Amino acid sequence: MTVLFVLLSILLLVLLIVWAKLNPFLAFLITSIVAGLLLGIPPEQVAVSVQQGMGSLLGDLVIIITMGAMLGKLVADSGAAQRIADFLMRIFGKKYIHWAMMLTGLVVGIPLFYNVGFVLLVPLVFTVAHQYKLSAVYVGIPLLAALSVTHGFLPPHPSPAALVAQFDANMGMTLLYGMIVAVPTILIAGPLFARYLKSIPASPLKSFRASSKPEEELPGTLNSFLSALLPVVLLVGTTVLLMQTDEGSVFYGYIAFMADPGMVMLFSLLVATFTLGLHQGMKMKHLMDIYVDSVKEVAMIILIVAGAGALKQVLMDSGVSQVIADGLEGWDVHPLVLAWTITAVIRVCVGSATVAGLTTAGIIGPLIQDTGVDPNLVVLAIGAGSLMFSHFNDAGFWMYKEFFNVSIKDTIKSWSVMETIVAVVGLVGVMVLDGLIG
């Protein structure tokens, strides 16, 4: 009966999001309460579990997600993203323009949230496609593959950052492993796959073409790259330094402080505030307005993460997580493949990568702890599964279709297949990495 109640709870979550069109945060909240009552938690304790789950997960993430949103919007509004794209296009030229688009998506996608990156960079795709007389789909898929991978695999994006917190992984190591898996995944799902899409007709509206800033108003190339990538450099650098430093050293505490993801994001934002803001002539009030607007864009993501934390806590407090873990333990399936599969199924049903990833974390948390699998790889396996086959219930599917102005059939042939390639190749990369470090 316990497993049946869990399945009913997940079915309720899917129905509330897909059929009732309820906001995922409300859906998580309602599902958490219903699951708690079904699974035997005393009624007076259900609300406590919900509040505890939301608070414990958000405590780790509010700084990371909000600072990441602020940095991403500053990179966009300052013209740094445009400078990075222009530089890469000059280097690669027309023949390899899709490689330039891929690198633009990877570099700019690290600090930018997916929807922001899509809206910011897709007009650039249309402008380039028009300028070079190329298919917009052929030019755009490599960029979108890179944006998708950074969204699903790499902190400080909300889903991987939340998964790092749920599995008590190391954000710097997750980012390092994530980059190792991300590069071949993007190469296959982006430039290599795009070669088969040249004939897909797309007629994006002229109004969607990028309105570029004048050259003299853009920040310098080095400044743009360093400001956008500083969180990556600091997270990976401090993690490696921490591994090389003895815990008894007088410097260990200071390095651990600087390696904390929240401190990394805060420091990176303060540096960018000067390099991309004040140094470029922006007023402090204008910068603060940019930051306020950026937080509005991620407020609902933060709430969805909180809702997922509530469901996870209810499953833990009821003891059902351990029951499920014990039940799955008999399966002759590698834990990473199991995590990927559960996430992929929920993703196809619900449509949201974030909801799929965080729901899976609540289900299999205890199982992963008992197997001794590297938690950083679990984060990546779930991240890969959360990108599986985007279709009609995913907002990204419709954004792509409408912006590129392609048919449903061609959207599935290009966008949906690209997302599936990302999910499958991502899992293969995680399994290879597991074999190498295991």
From TrEMBL:
The main location class comes to membrane
InterPro entries per the record?
Answer: Glcn_transporter (IPR003474)
Which GO cellular component term is one of those annotated? plasma membrane
Annotated compartments: Cell membrane
State a single Pfam family of this protein. Answer: GntP_permease
Q: Kindly state which keywords UniProt assigns to this record, in alphabetical order.
A: Cell membrane, Membrane, Transmembrane, Transmembrane helix, Transport
Ranges annotated as spanning the membrane: 30-50, 57-76, 96-129, 136-154, 174-197, 218-242, 254-278, 298-316, 336-365, 377-400, 420-437
Record protein name field: TRAP transporter large permease subunit
Species assigned in the record: Echinicola soli
The top of its lineage is:
Bacteria, Pseudomonadati, Bacteroidota, Cytophagia, Cytophagales
